[in-house]
Amino acid sequence: MNCQNCKTITEEGYSVCATCELRFAGTLLRLARDVTPLHDSLDATLHPGGHSPVRIQTATPPTPIRLDVLDLIDMLDATARELWRCLDGIDALDWRKDRRNEDLTATLIACAGHARLATFADAGFYMHIINDIARKVDTALDPPEQRREIGTCELCNTMLTAGQNDQWVICPLCGREQRAQTVKLRRLKTLCWDDSRRGSAADIAKAFTDAGITLKASRVRKWVERGQVSRTPQGIPYSDVYRQVIAGQLDK
Question: Rounded to two decimals, what is the model's pTM?
Fold first, then answer.
């Protein structure tokens, strides 16, 4: 008989292999540990990230609730109850025999240590569901770093993305590793050397600052007021701002 999760050969009467059983139990115990911080993160005023969020006092109670986290807790609770009934062989409609524990953490721990965790018929199916919920819980508690577009690959012209602290990026298409700052400067060069490219003062200032050249939007607006930089209905030309920045660098 093959394991329902990894397809390796298992012992007779087992739905998942011993390795997958350990992983299944470990994921259930990890979710049991995450129940408390998950409930804490319902408060939308909490700063996301990590398992020790700090509550921010607000002047007007009640604080807003993160509905996405509430839905995730409901999904975890329903799945844990259903898994326990499957392990105990209880029909969902026969509530009189349902000796379930009302505490979600205790339910998850009981499921992890159940003798039938690897032998009941749908073990692989529930392992897949639990793993999917665990990934969503990890994302809710520790959101991934926000990545944004920084420019294109110099070889294949694929748009590259990077986090705020990333120094190097790897092109997902050609695999070329490039310095993030070089990619940003190349993008800025493309914008500034094309006389047709326009933008707002804020957008232009951000493009220069991201490329390592500090520029404030207020300075761009002053250049416009003084007539040093032109303005069209489509916006301010990047090339005009670039000339002012270079002139300022040469004057130093």
Answer: 0.56
Query: Are the C-beta atoms of 153 and 171 separated by less than 8 Å?
Result: yes
Q: How many CB atoms neighbour CB 47 within 10 A?
A: 10
Two structure tokens written together for 99:
């000796």
**Cβ-based burial of 59 (10 A; exposed 0-12, middle 13-18, buried ≥19):** exposed
Distance, CA of 229 to CA of 2 (rounded, Å):
71
4: its two tokens: 């329902």
Q: Using omega within 30 degrees of 0 as the cis cutoff, is the peptide bond preceding 144 cis?
A: no
DSSP state of 144: P
Q: How does pLDDT run across 100-119, given as a tens digit for each residue? A: 557 899 999 999 999 999 99
Residue 228 has a CB neighbour count (10 Å cut-off) of: 14
Indicate the pairing of strand 159-162 with strand 236-237.
Answer: unpaired
